[in-house]
Structures are given as C-alpha cells and as structure tokens.
Design a protein that fits this description.
It is a single chain. This protein folds into four domains: about 10-40 and about 210-255, Nucleotidyltransferase, domain 5; about 40-195, Beta Barrel (OB fold (Dihydrolipoamide Acetyltransferase, E2P)), CATH 2.40.50; about 265-375, Aminopeptidase, CATH 3.40.630; about 385-465, Ribonuclease E, catalytic domain (Hypothetical Protein Ychn, Chain: A). About 30% of the residues lie in helices and about 25% in strands. It has helices spanning about 130-145, 165-185, 200-210, 220-230, 250, 255-260, 300-320, 335-350, 380-385, 395-410, 425-430, 435-445; strands at about 10-15, 20-25, 30-35, 45-55, 60-65, 70-75, 85-95, 100-105, 110, 115, 125, 150-155, 190-195, 215, 240, 265, 275-280, 280-290, 325-330, 360-365, 370-375, 420, 450, 460-465. Strands 4, 5, 6, 7, 8 and 13 form a six-stranded antiparallel β-sheet that branches. The longest helix has 23 residues, at about 165-185.
C-alpha cells in the first residue's frame, strides 16, 4: 500500500455512500478501520416521558424518540419522578442483546475541548497540567464563562487553546443545552433534542484539532469538518478534499487492504504466515512457518518468526476489531526465554490497551498463548459479511459497495437516466431510505430506477440506460 506525504498518522475518510468509512494510516499502512452506519449513539439527549415507575428496581421507564423505552435509575435523576412527567435524559448505555437502553438525568454535553455539565457547578482541569500559572489562567477563563451553575471540564486537547477558542467551544455546547431546555418547556411528544457526536466523530475531531492530516472523499463531510475547525478558530490546512477520477480508498490502495483483512490467511514480511479464525466463542490464531527459513527443530528460528508474528497479530486484531477470548498457537519454543520474548512482543504491541482493555492469560500447559480483549462494537467481519457457508457481503455492506461503484463510474463520464439492477436484498435496502436516491440523483444528474434481479449476487449491479433518456 502506497501513501504519499511525510505524516506518520493520516486519516482517510470515505463519505460518498450511506455509510462513512474512516481509515487510519500509520507509517504507510492501514492499521485501523471504522465503519459508521448512523443510528443512535451513546450520550444522545432525549426529551422523554415517564411511562412507569418501578419501585422494586428503584427506576422508571421513559418513552423515547425512535428507541424502545429506556430505564432511568432514580439515583441518576435529581428530583422526584411520577408517571406522565416529561424529563430531559441522556443515553448512558445503548441496548444490546437482551439488555435495554439505560438513561441518566445528569447531562454531560461533550465537545472537542470540553464537557459541559449543566447544574454541576464545578470547574475541572486535566490533572496532567502541572504549570500553576497556566492552571490559574485557564480557571480564570472558565470562571468568566460559567453561568447557571454550569459544570465545565476542560479536556487535555484544549490545554493550549486560546481564550477565544475556549469561549467558542463553550458557547457552542451551551447553545445545544438551551435548545434542549426550549423543547422541554413546550413538550408534546418524545423527541431527540441533541444528537451526540459518535466516538468516531470525536476521534476525527481530536485528530483535526491536533493538526493531523486528513483527506476526505465526499463534499458534505469535507464542508462539515472544515466548519468544525472554523468554529473552534483552528487552521484547516491539514484537511484536504479528495480529487480525481478514482475513489479515495481505491486511489490509496485501502480497498485491497480491507479485502485482505477479511481473509483468514495473512502473510508475514520475511516469510511465514498466520491464520485467523473468528468463531462465536473465541478467535483462534495459528502461526505457520511455511516456506520461511524456520524449522521447528531450531528454537532460535522459531522465536524469531514468533516475535515477528506477534506484532502482526496485534495489528490484525485492531484492524479487524476482534474482541473476546483470543488463543494463539505459536511455533513451539523449547526455552523459557523464547516464550518471554513472545509475550513481551505481544505486550509491547498492545501498549496502552493493557490498561484495562486487554487482559493477558499467558501460556497454557499445551503451549498455547491466551488473552482477552474488550469488545468494542462489531468486528470488521461481522460488519461486512453474512456468516453463511458462502460468506457473502451483507445487504447493507453490498448496498454501500454498489453506491461507491456507481459514484466511481460517474467520475468517468456516466450520467443521465438509468435503471439500476441489484440483488433483491440490496434493492430493499436502497428503497427503505431516501438517502440512496439522493446520492444517486446527485451524481447521475437524474433520478434512477431501482430494480431487483434474483440472478445478481449481493455486491453485483447492472446499469441500463433508460430508453427515453
């Protein structure tokens, strides 16, 4: 994979379809990939209505906009509650499996450089700031801003911000809270009053505010992110729109890297390979010497390949977003020193993740190496594919693949009225929302027709020019 420039960290953002894909390029290779398909996120703020009190659980059920009723613990709300009462609440945990949405009445509005807690009264600076003069200066700025007994917590990223930038951030967050209060003053139905930035949005914004390089394929996303920087009084030289006839991920060879990250086999630089087998209960990883100059009768050579494999294993776990129990079968090493080197390589590769996210189990009596990693959403494999014998792309992933392919065709001259034939599950995804037709109409210059064709696979489409065009 070839990536130009001298920056060690670069974000590539593909926002031309229904989903947004963000790739992190570190030292010239893809190391992380995020896929955002929208939907509710943690920290969304709702105007809800209490539907039922649950004394036995010390909680209340609250009707929400677009979500199943959420659970509001009584100790997470300041004041009494009764059925029919309108309340401003925030999602503290999204529902998953058999667990419902959990709420809190103690609102925290997160921005890039600060967190606003209405009514919390306190001011807080990061502990890492040891310069007393700077602490005094920043506290003075926050005190001058504080109204309505707000709680304001400044984030580390804002420690070098100018007073004007801090004021702009506070006013932006305060305006969002005022909008929520206005909705609560005249309630009529449950309402999502503030869409919180996702974890991905916050990561992108922190990268941009820190001056990190970012290339965006998608005009609306580029304008939005540049507006974020302008609102924070930050320079926007590091964010660039992608130009050219090819899509960004194709142009930077990321698409091929994604395809490789869905495969079982990963070849190692210098010889050998690893096999990654994701199952429901655990992920099994096997280290193989193959044609490398490594023999199981040579402890030194086995150690050398295992150490090389350790770094790539951690890279793949992050890239594929694999969580849960992970079991590695390395090449057999006779010496304790060899096993120690392998474990050290694993620990060094994980780095800061060892502080909570990764728990090391170590070597078993059978020579396997075990650890667990905290799950953080779906794995890349689960996000992209339907787990069936033929392992086809899911309808959602295929719909976005089709949209990207058509956008790419329009950059090479395709335009006008077309009928787009796709597999029936994909046609259903495209028909369910207005966004796909808006995207297609914009790039084609005319509203296309969508038709299902049972002979097509999920990621295949056919364009036919309409006769009257």
């Amino acid at each position: 994979m070839t990536v130009g420039g001298t920056h060690h960290h670069r974000l590539l953002i593909d926002a031309v379809a229904l989903e947004r894909r963000v790739a992190l390029i570190e030292d010239g290779r893809l190391t992380r990939l995020w896929i955002d398909r929208g939907g509710p996120v943690r920290f969304d703020i709702h105007l809800g209505r209490v539907t039922k009190l649950l004394p036995e659980m010390a909680a209340a059920m609250v009707a929400l906009d677009g979500l199943a009723d959420g659970l509001l613990p009584l100790d997470r709300y300041n004041g009494s509650l009764h059925e029919g009462q309108w309340v401003l609440v925030q999602v503290s945990r999204l529902g998953f499996e058999d667990k419902g949405v959990k709420l809190t009445g103690r609102i925290a509005i997160e921005g890039v450089g600060m967190i606003l807690r209405p009514g919390a009264k306190h001011l807080e600076l990061p502990r890492k700031l040891k310069d007393e003069a700077r602490r005094s200066e920043l506290l003075s700025v926050l005190k001058s801003l504080q109204t309505d007994e707000d709680g304001i917590m400044l984030r580390s990223v804002a420690l070098d911000w100018t007073p004007d930038a801090i004021v702009a951030e506070y006013r932006r967050l305060k305006a969002q809270w005022q909008k929520a209060l206005k909705a609560a003053a005249t309630p009529s139905k449950p309402l999502l009053v503030r869409k919180a930035p996702s974890d991905l949005d916050q990561m992108i914004e922190r990268h941009l505010v820190a001056g990190g390089e970012c290339i965006v394929d998608g005009t609306e996303e580029f304008v939005r992110l540049r507006g974020v920087l302008k609102g924070l009084d930050k320079p926007d030289e590091a964010i660039m729109p992608h130009t050219g006839t090819r899509l960004l991920f194709d142009d930077q060879d990321v698409e091929s890297e994604i395809t490789s990250a869905l495969e079982v086999r990963v070849d190692l630089v210098g010889g050998g390979w690893i096999a990654i087998d994701q199952a429901t209960a655990l992920c099994a990883i096997d280290v193989n010497a193959a044609g490398a100059d490594v023999g199981r009768d040579s402890d030194a050579r086995a150690i050398e390949l295992n150490v090389r494999a350790a770094q790539e294993i951690v890279n793949q776990i992050r890239l594929r977003n694999i969580g849960g129990l992970i079991v590695i079968d390395p090449l057999r090493m006779k010496s304790r020193a060899g096993r120690d080197k392998f474990e050290a390589a694993i620990r060094n590769a994980f780095g800061a993740e060892l502080d909570g996210a990764v728990q090391i189990g170590g070597f078993t009596r059978l020579g396997l190496y075990e650890f667990s990693r905290q799950r953080a959403g779906e794995s890349l494999l689960a996000k992209m594919r339907v787990q069936q014998p033929n392992d086809v792309l899911s309808a959602s992933a295929a719909a976005n693949s089709v949209l990207r392919a058509i956008v790419a065709e329009t950059r090479n001259g395709v335009a006008g009225g077309y009928t787009i034939y796709v597999a029936p599950p994909v046609a259903e995804v495209l028909a369910r929302r207005d966004d796909p037709l808006q995207i297609l109409t914009k790039v084609l210059g005319a509203t296309p027709k969508i038709a299902g064709d049972r002979m097509l696979k999920n990621d295949i489409y056919r364009l036919e020019k309409n006769e009257h065009e």
